[in-house]
Amino acid sequence: MAEHNSIWEALGFRKASGVGEAGWGRTLFVAIVSLIYFLPVLFIIFTAFKPQDAALSVPPTLSPTSFFGLIPDKYVFTPTIENFGSVFNRSMTSGGAPESTGFDRYFFNSIVIASSSVLLALVIGTLAAFGFSRYPLKGNDTYLFIILTTRMLPAIVVIIPVILMFRVVGLSGSYTGIILLYTAFNLAFTIWMMKSFFDELSLDVEDAARIDGSSDMKVFFKIALPQVVAGLAATFVFGLILTWNEFLFALLLSGPDTRTVPVAMNQAVSSGGRGTDWTLLAAIETLFLIPVFLVTFFLQNHLLRGVTFGTVKR
Amino acid sequence: MSTIEIRKVTKQFGSFTAVKDADLKVEAGEVVCLLGPSGCGKTTTLRMIAGLERATSGDVIIAGQRMNELSPQKRDIAMVFQFYALYPALTVGQNISMPLHSEGLSKADSDARVMKVAQIMHLTEVLDRMPNQISEGEKQRLAVARAIVRDPNCFLFDEPLSRLDVELRHSMRGQIKEVLTGLSKATVIVTHDQLEALTMASRIAIMKDGVIEQVGTPHEVFAKPVNVFVASFIGTPQMNLVEADLQSFGDGKASVILAGQSLSIAADPAVSRLKPSKVTVGIRPRAFSTVQDKGGDTIAAQAELIEPMGAETLIHARTSSGGDIRVVVPRDKRVKVGEALHLKPDPRQTHFFGEDGKAVRA
Amino acid sequence: MTVVTKMKGFAAAAGLAATLMTGGATYALAEEVTLTMAVPDWPPTRIMKKFFDEQYKPKSGNTVKLDVDFIPWPDFYTRVNASLTSGEQKYNFIVSDSQWLGAFVEGGYYRKINDLLDADPEFKKTLMSVHPAPLAAYSTYPYKSENYYGFPQFPDVLVNYGRKDILCHEEEQKNFQAKYGKKLPCTGEELDAMTWDDFKNVGEFFRRKKGEMLAGAPAEDDFYGIAFQAGKGYDFSSMQINGFIWQMGGNVWDETQAPTGQAEGVVNSPEAVAALEKYLSLLEYMPPVAKTGTMDIFKSDELFREGKVAMNIDWIGLGEASLDPKSSKVSDKLVFGQMPGTMGPDGKMIRWSNIGGQPFVLTTWTTPEQTTEAVEFVKWWLSNDIQHQFAAGGGQSAVKEVYEDPKYVTYRPWNRAWAPQLDWQKDVWHVPQFFELLTQQQDQFDLAITGKQDAKTTLDNIAKFQQDLLTNAGLIQ
Amino acid sequence: MTSTTATAPPPALMRLSPDNWKLAILVGLIVSVIAAIALPASASFWIIGAMAAMIGAAFVVNAYRRKYYGGLLVAPAIAVLFVMNIFPLLWSLGLSFYAYQSNQQSIRFVGLANYIKVLTNDIAAPANWAALVNTAMFVVLTVTAQMIVGFLLAMMFAKQFPLRKYLLILVLTPMMLSVVASGVFFTYYYDPTFGILSYVVNAITGGQFILMSSKVGAVAGIVFADAWMWSPFVMLLVLAGLVSVPKYLYEAAAIDRVSKWRQFWTITFPYIRGLLMLALLFRTIEAFKLADLVILLTKGGNDTMTISYHLIRIANEQNKTSEGAAISYLMLFMVIVLTNLYLYIANRRSQGA
Fold first, then answer.
1. N or C: which end of chain C has fewer CB atoms below 10 A?
2. Mean pLDDT computed over C173-187
3. What pLDDT score was predicted for residue C131?
4. CATH number of the domain within which A295 lies
5. Structural domain of residue A193, as residue ranges?
6. Is there a single domain that holds both residue D277 and residue D183?
7. How does pLDDT run across A243-269, given as a tens digit for each residue?
8. For C4-149, where are the E strands, in sequence order?
9. Span D295-349, pLDDT tens digits
10. How far is Cα B225 from Cα B228, in angstroms, rounded to an integer?
């Protein structure tokens, strides 16, 4: 019996010291699975480093290095960073001189629009979630459900009234307009998530604080909010990922100056009078991945501690 | 044979040594309390016995079998957790029957066992409730019920009563002791509450900084503490530990200068081995008699704080050299703040500790 | 009683509000005019903007700014359609597919320019210098009427892209001759003379598996003789199939015959069925992606550029990428010819093809000041000098004097096949129902292309649908 | 906290005061209706807007006077949602009762005719039903796949092990990709000439492999891409549930000699059930909207048309605005029924447990 147990330990799949921990064997196993899962992304990233003419080569080139002869030469490509330059500067006419593609602007727009709308939604949504959680209205669940339904319809259905409304109030093509729209777009998710977090908190602490003379405002900021920091981080990341890649509203409501990367990315899908420019598309996507990847990575611990709430309540 | 033995067990977390060379043997039917201040390694020791932690070195022997490498499932033990670890999604009854699933009992047998245990632990009324719907005392009883429903090699309790109020704690102590007596298994209880240990244990193991300082019956650890730590840890109010200069030893008496006063106290002959040196003299607060005259062999002090404790009164007194002395006197002995006291220690209850802190005894 | 036309009112309200808000600012200086333009983002529009910025000097002395919104091709229609139909009134100029004319003219978005033509003979002369086929396609609604709307931006036709190195290889020439008793087309002129049967032969002949000999060396990958568009998206099969149908004596629903022209009996005539069958039979010799219904104009072009096929029929608009060694593995092995025809019973080649390319149009809310400048801009754009520059920079010109200039053929290798082809270009469906007609037809063609349905059923379904739809719309009596 | 609301007496309807929201609604409605009928649209638009603002202000003042903080907290969110989402939704709901095409400037009230058309018309209805059936198929397949894969991935990461943090981010990355890029690259992976998949299969079988040439293949291709992208979402929620299980429960179970299987069902599952339901809820709502991957991978070919793509064609390409609105409201109705069913079951379970 003892030996049987030790095999798994020797392989590092289990650790005797403590339930819920594992060793390097587990790491190896998970690394293999994770890498396989990551392969399609890795391929996109590698494509960003390929010379244009290697993008569609048959057999597909898979690696920038042969790993000391481990990978046959036909699968190896010579990496280049030219594509990343092309994202920002390339010839936009046949044989013309390289010119700015505007992507610096688009990246800036994406960052400004996504981060400010997600933050705004977080502020407004957290307030609302606290309201829904602590001061339930008659028919509270119905209101929450109505808020959820705003996520249910395909965007194309509501787009015409929104465009017209933007036109009427002069928000077309402005940052304000698209940020407000994204804020609304994120609110449903934010409110549902944050309400779940507030519901999980113990009311005793807040009541105690009130007895000690704290105002409701202070209770919210000093007592409730610090306890849901993890939830805020999680909601921020989820919201960011969804907003970052939003396409349809961005296409229809942003002007040339407020265009975001997902819209402009289609430059590479139909590029310069041909189909997909694979290496350019890959380079754009790779660059576009970096900010959201970093944010997720650094908030990852919060994500894990953050998204813990009880059951779906209705 | 239900026994537990650990031999030279050491546990290291990185560079931190949580438990060092612990030796302990628990016989069948014996209840051993692991007692010590928080962070002393007592819970780690228990978890090593349970198999929740792996010992860095040493042997864990349960029922005569070395079990270091075995997972908890294979050690056949029962354990009551500090926070009870009740399965939140199961009813009280299902919680109790949980350990029985691995026994392959028939449904009827299993139910009968659950009913029997529920009766013992007074849980029959709440069998169908969820753990979050029962009282704190019931949760505690449920945790114990789950442990005793099976016939394991041994029982382990981790701070079983720490979450109960004083009254409940008192009655639970009795109940647990009663149940354990009937089962005659080796049992280890971890606690930081000496009253719990003194009342429930057949023997007490006192730990400090990962080391088992003393193992003995409640009486032994109280009457014959092996060192300053045990002496100060066991007994309330705490034993007075006073620095003194040992002058000489003769005629069964030690001459010391204590709090600036010269005393001659009857002492264990072993004290004679000590050279004239600094010693620590331990005197329990109840081991003083107050005398009127300021004749020889008394300590002069002035009452500073009077704490009535019901049947007795605790007096904090200050010696002429500025040291604190706690004295317990009967209730009828009226002492006023500022009153001068002459304290005569009971020589039979006076302990001498050498410079290394160890008790000096034959 | 008719309910108040709220939508219209709303649009008016929107316009009013916008004018109130922006009016003061924009027109504070009367001599500063901004023309806003929605264009797809590709070289022919980028170069137009470039020429404008570098060379355009308004005669009026006003400061004219061309504000161009470059929208990626895949989203171009969505963006423009939403902008127009929502009443956003953002753009003065819009690059438009010719078939959108009906929908957006009826919607009241595209400005009829007959009054401008009448008022400015020079303008009229400029527009009339465009070859009549593209002019009708790009400018008229109803099709081939006297109502003018658009100006050619990038005129386009289908041409045959060929691989010289493969087609002219001695060994292949010999074997082809032996097998078919005909010369394997190799030069541009030989390509011009091809019929669909010749095209099929090329397809059959060049089907090579990986490792088989191809032009004197083992093929590195599976190789195919021919490719053309057969995709479900947008118009990526109709544009090719229409050519087959016209050449083989069939017809699509002909809007110029409305309201007496029928769909049923015409669209599914035996000639049309035979034409579709011919089209479908060629798919067999194409790369496997043809079977998935996703071989659109871009995919077949990509296959050609990557050297997987010997011949591909595609728009000139995609040609630049083939010439660029960075994006093309065959850049130095190209030969171009006209799209194949069908041999008539009299031994004369029957040629028809669906025109491509895009005009640009003026919108109805463009102010008189803007319109004046816009007309000047169009005249400048269609002037011979600029059209020559445009053609030299990778564009095409439908202006007679320009493409008839001997210089013209030197600009690009496919230009040799350009002028003759203009004569047999036709267009379809400038009607508002264009998208419904197209979507249903593309869906049906896709079923045929992916082998789920035969040609007869396909055309019957299309005919029935069109008959119903167009009857309801009053276009068929 | 809530008692403050209960004790306040309801304001008399006709009392003229800034916090009388009932009166505000009444006046607002009457004025709006009169304005809509009597005045041109350009004027009535602003009047209706002003009425809405008045009602909103009345609510806020009312909440403030009654010290009803809940209302004040919720107000900004409701305002943004109303303007940006609910108002357009109501607008398009209204349009669904008219005959209106956005590229034609006429509009006519037709009542339920659009709904009847999309459900019964012998040309429109079969296409709608086919798209709906396909959507249901995609929802079932892709959500199931996401739940299973996401769950397994979460189990994989549940334990603490070296480098966990760095491996986890690899698995999370697919959901950060923009759908355009990942969709376009999946067309490449599936491409019979250039693609990796066919290259691998060809190398093994020696024959040609065209994944997207059959319905099964096309559906599999779409579901794979979608599930690949969104399983990490499910994983993250489940993982959060897994790490929230107190460790001592597993320890107790180990001591009680509970089998792994039973441990899972009695300890783990109850902790993650709520999160699984939430993941299911959000993923189902999103799966109903599946369109972009279909557009990129098949254009709806091989019978993979989904209701959402169908809607884009009708409402956007063909500008049949009213018909599109009718379809989308029928779809919304179905999603609402489904989600309510979910929430009902989720609730009953969690109360029963």
1. N
2. 94
3. 94
4. 1.10.3720.10
5. 103-306
6. yes
7. 999 988 888 888 888 899 999 998 888
8. 32-40, 63-71, 93-95
9. 999 988 889 999 989 988 888 888 888 888 898 888 888 888 888 888 788 777 6
10. 7
* pTM of this structure: 0.83
A and B: number of Cβ contacts within 8 A: 21
Residue to mutate among C16, C34, C75, C322, with most A CBs inside 10 A, is C75
Q: What ipTM did this prediction achieve?
A: 0.81
A26-40, B94-108, D11-25: segment of lowest average pLDDT: D11-25
**B15 has a pLDDT exceeding 70:** yes
Q: Which of A27, A183, A285 sits opposite D163 (nearest CB)?
A: A27
With both helix axes pointing from N to C terminus, report the angle between C455-472 and C434-449 in degrees, rounded to the nearest 10.
170
pLDDT attached to residue B261: 80
Would you state the pLDDT for residue D36? Answer: 65
Averaged pLDDT for residues B75-102:
85
Which residues of D are less than 8 Å from B190 in CB distance? none
Residue B256 and residue B265 in contact, taking contact as beta carbons nearer than 8 Å: yes
Q: What are the pLDDT digits (tens) for C42-84?
A: 989 999 999 999 999 888 888 899 999 999 888 899 889 888 8
Tell me whether chains B and C touch (3+ CB pairs under 8 A).
no
In sequence order, the 6+-apart residues with CB closer than 8 A to the CB of C186 are C164, C167, C168, C173, C335
In this complex, the residue of C301, C319, C320 whose CB is nearest that of residue A275 is: C301
CATH class of C158-354: alpha beta
Burial class (CB in 10 A: 0-12, 13-18, 19+), C122: exposed
What's the CATH number of domain C6-156+358-426, 3.20.20.70, 1.20.1440.60, 1.10.10.10, 3.40.190.10?
3.40.190.10
CB-based contact A273 C320, cutoff 8 Å: yes
Is D108 part of any domain?
A: no
Given a cut of 50, whether residue C19 has pLDDT beyond it is no
CB atoms within 10 A of CB A112: 15
- Mean pLDDT is highest, among A128-142, B279-293, C257-271, D22-36, for C257-271
Q: Do residues A34 and A134 both lie within one domain?
A: no
CA nearest neighbour of C90 among C100, C80, C99: C80
Nearest-CA neighbor of D251 among B6, B96, B87, A54? B87
Look at residues A63, A91, A119 and tell me which one is the last residue of a structural domain.
A91
Residues 6+ apart with CB under 8 A from A46: A61, A62, A63, A64, A77, A282
Which residue range is the domain that position D89 belongs to? 3-95
How far is Cα D49 from Cα D51, in angstroms, rounded to an integer? Answer: 5
- Pick from A72, A103, A150, A148: which is nearest to A263 by CA? A103
Q: Which domains does chain B have, with CATH numbers?
A: 4-228 (3.40.50.300), 240-353 (2.40.50.140)
Q: Subunits touching B (CB < 8 Å, at least 3 pairs)?
A: A, D
The total number of residues written for chain C in this structure: 477
Q: Is A314 contained in some domain? A: no
Question: Does D173 contact A311 at a Cβ distance shorter than 8 Å?
Answer: no
* Six-digit token string for B12: 């290291």
| Strands annotated E in chain D | 98-100, 107-109
The H or E element spanning position C359 is strand C356-362
What is the band of C2 on the pLDDT scale with cuts at 50, 70, 90? very low
**CA–CA dist C441, D59 (Å, integer):** 54
**pLDDT greater than 70 at residue D5:** no
Domain match, A107 and A67 both:
no
To the nearest whole percent, how much of chain C has pLDDT over 90?
75
| List of residues 6+ apart from A267 with CB closer than 8 A | A101, A280, C41, C72
Quick check: B54 and A17 CB within 8 A? yes
Specify the number of domains making up chain D. Answer: 2
* Residue C451, phi-psi category: left (phi > 0), alpha (psi -120 to 50), beta (remainder): left
* C81 with D42: Cβ contact below 8 A: no
Q: Which of A96, A160, A267 lies closest to C72 in CB terms?
A: A267
